[in-house]
Amino acid sequence: MLSDINLLPQREQRSIFFILALAIILSIGLIGGGILFYQYQSLSKEKDAKQSESKIIAEQVDEATAQLLTASLQSMTEQYQEIVNTLVKLPIQTVKVLNDMTAALPKNGYFKSYTYQDTGAISLTATFSSMEETAQYLHQLRVSDWVQYIEISSVTRQNKGTESILYEANYTVQLKREAFLSAKGADGN
């Protein structure tokens, strides 16, 4: 009789349940890792696409802004140029007007007051030593090529002592602006 004595502990047989559970856990981990990796890749690609789209949109916005600014500046430049051209054309050189009006004055006549409006209307008061000089000044202005319309509104007689009699006349003059503008262009002033 032989007897087997085995003092080594007996190994328990592994159950198939443990191996199966381990395989399932590993497969879930691998599938989850694959899904996470796929999502990371797709999000990364989407992020790159959005960034490139953002850059393109930013470039388009910059181009559109530059075009608007250029158009705006050109528009403003054109508006300012029109204003400058208008201002250059509008004013009449009052020095030329005064020179022409004083040249028409008789020897003993002088201005007492002078009012000029940019529309070309002049109101003036002049003093003369005789009634004939008052009429002569009216005639000189009426035949001038730079006067469109002239009217004498009043003539008053002023006694300055026993021998001195002065006549004060109020005139309203409308200038021909074209005459002064063309003269301005010829002179360059």
Summed over residues and divided by their number, the pLDDT gives a mean of 85
The main sheet comes to:
4 strands, antiparallel
SS-derived structural category: alpha+beta
Radius of gyration in whole Å, from Cα? Answer: 52 Å
Strand order of the largest sheet: 1-2-4-3
Helix proportion of residues, in percent? 55-70%
How many strand segments?
A: 4
What's the end-to-end separation, in Å? 147 Å
Percent of residues in β-strands: 15-25%
Shape: rod-shaped
Structure, described:
- It is a single chain.
- It contains 4 helices and 4 strands, in the order H-H-E-E-H-E-E-H.
- The chain has 189 residues and is an alpha+beta fold.
- Strand 3 and strand 4 (164-175) form a beta hairpin.
- The model is unreliable at 185-189 (pLDDT under 50).
Keywords:
189 residues; alpha+beta; 4 helices; disordered C terminus
Brief digest:
With 189 residues, the chain is an alpha+beta fold. Helix content is 57%, strand content 22%.
SSE topology sketch:
Layout: H1 16-89, H2 94-104, E1 110-116, E2 121-128, H3 131-142, E3 147-160, E4 164-175, H4 177-187
Antiparallel strand pairs: 1-2, 2-4, 3-4
